[in-house]
Amino acid sequence: MTRATRQDAPPAAPHAADHHDLIRVHGARENNLKDVSIEIPKRRLTVFTGVSGSGKSSLVFDTIAAESQRLINETYSAFLQGFMPTLARPEVDVLEGLTTAIIVDQQRLGADPRSTVGTATDANAMLRILFSRLGDPHIGSPNAYSFNVPSVRAHGAITVERGNAKTVRQSFTRTGGMCPHCEGRGTVSDIDLTQLYDDSKSISEGAFTIPGWKSDSWWTVRLYADSGFLDPDKPIRDFTEQEMRDFLYREPTKVKVEGTNLTYEGLIPKIQKSFLSKDREGMQPHIRAFVDRAVTFTACPECGGTRLSEAARSSRIGELNIADACALQITDLADWVATLDEPSVAPLLAALRHTLDSFVEIGLGYLSLDRPAGTLSGGEAQRVKMIRHLGSSLTDVTYVFDEPTIGLHPHDIERMNGLLLRLRDKGNTVLVVEHKPETIAIADHVVDLGPGAGTGGGTISFEGTVAGLRASDTLTGRHLDDRATLKKEVRKPTGTLEIRGADRHNLQDVDVDIPLGVLTVVTGVAGSGKSSLIHGSIPRSDEVVSVDQSPIRGSRRSNPATYTGLLDPIRKAFAKANGVKPALFSANSEGACPNCKGAGVVYTDLGMMAGVSATCEECDGKRFEASVLEHHLGGKDISEVLAMPVTEAEEFFREGEARTPAAHRVLTRLADVGLGYLTLGQPLTTLSGGERQRLKLATHMADKGGTYVLDEPTTGLHLADVDQLLALLDRLVDSGKSVIVIEHHQAVMAHADWIIDLGPGAGHDGGRVVFEGTPADLTENRGTVTGEHLAAYVGG
């Protein structure tokens, strides 16, 4: 092998290509950004900090990453662009130096009931190929091992249009791995008919008790009443056997209702298709409550919950079939794959080993491939998305992360930091939105937005090194080295909540007493069994208020006023003061501007190009009819009230002509959780993850339960906001509530009255209580990973 000799020439002027080492943003105005201009170094790790709502996501995701994706999409043909999401150009004057952006955000993975960790990461696809090559007995192609592919058999006559057209007999067979009984879901449902209808009433009398099925619902109730199969005026309990069969189980049948052709279908299959085709985690709260009440899910008796056909389960490699392999903890599966030595599939085995090793490296080795994707937390979902990028050979790519440390124990944050640095060292630009000081500390460059949130933010407060941030007088700089102190005295419990023999998921027959009347923190490394213990063992009741990490769902018409129920007392107050109907003061009802239908903007669809939105000329973006805006309360019309920040609205409804106690109570709760800067009419789609979590918390504070269960309430919280959260938790406990918090943040641990630490590891290495006691005892003991980190945090 020969190598060309290199002649070192004298240094010349820098190459023109070397001048593009910065991402330049000029005049960014997306959401609350105020004409922001900034230069971000490429091939470096840049961390964006600032209080929740200061504009971090608007700058990083909605401006830089969004424009990168839009420009890439424009390189495809118009035909392909028609199948892709249309992206509008962000509100920014100039964006230069962009590279391909790979976004790794906190959006939950698809909540399809057939989506699992294995299908989301392609690990299942590789396992299916492996079993189709090495499985004994051989049953077919990789499709034969897929629970998403049904077996199909067909035969008949087909006409071949070639030369003299002739009819030939043809048969078709495809072997799939789907269990035919549960259709690849792994569970079957038993529906309680008493929760669907009141059989003492007729359909005309409003017998249905299903959410959304009102007595005047034309597309549902009228369809059953006018189908011709049933007597709509007869009580359901008096139906004949044939009527009952048609009512509950009839196959889809074409009928004509009031001159319109519709499809009639029995109630049971209709419920299964409309309500049970989605994963429970992806349902709206009221639908989820209905499903929990009306439907019992049990493991499929045919496949034992594996989702696979009998043939797929019969094919094995050694002692394992593909269902066994997917049920293994990923660390164990990686060990099993490492024992396979088959030259004919060597490249496949190497790729599968790399994927499984990536799971372990990123701290997800405790998962199994058959874990439903919809059950992953936001942090777990984000790390699952990272897996496909860890071994990538791409360089000069911009990776964008949204708080990658969410859901991570301090022990795991060190590993995540190493992964971020490794991506940078391969020659990539890494942009991270983050609050944790451990991750801010490894940054090459820091951009701090603020100084406040909402309209009080949207400017660059600081730009430079971590040392410079620490010395600056910004809110982040002042709080970067904050350390909570242990309580000198802890509260005494007023009782205990006994949990006995908890064995959900990886829990190993756990017995624990959770003290009541105090602040209890349940902690441990990711995957140690915290959520399984609390959410799986504490019985659901009116006494228990659970604020979990499930996302808030809402369209651009939803806002804090509608989500919290605040708009109802406001509308009633306006109606009473002006002697009109409350419906007039809803932009989604009678008071909506007829031109924009209450949206405030008019959207123009341009096909495969980004649609254009323009402020409605009729209402000037106020969303209401002009006649509605003539009605006032306390000198303000409804659009002016919805434009108020929470703090101003709280004062407005506290006293005087506009005094409305019901509205004032909701506003006080919003201010208590640190959302005083939000405007009442701000669309939910523009809120950050931390803001949505606190909005949910404020809503649940109105519930009358005696025990509050909070799942990582510090998610998305700035260092300066943690103290406010701790004060809120103290107020809840001091008012007589019991507060149980699943949390990794050391400040919350230090502030607790009692700590329950699970571990010592994750998956089958966890699931045990390794410590119970006060924070002071934990730091003194240092017998667990949590104890070591908490002691270091408080300087013990």
UniProtKB/TrEMBL annotation:
PROSITE patterns: ABC_TRANSPORTER_2. It is found in: Cytoplasm. Keywords: ATP-binding, Cytoplasm, DNA damage, DNA excision, DNA repair, DNA-binding, Excision nuclease, Nucleotide-binding, Repeat. Its main location: cytoplasm. Residues 1-20 are annotated as: Disordered. Pfam families: ABC_tran. Residues 490-785 form the ABC transporter domain. InterPro entries: ABC_transporter-like_ATP-bd, P-loop_NTPase. Belongs to the ABC transporter superfamily. UvrA family. This is UvrABC system protein A. It comes from Streptomyces wadayamensis.
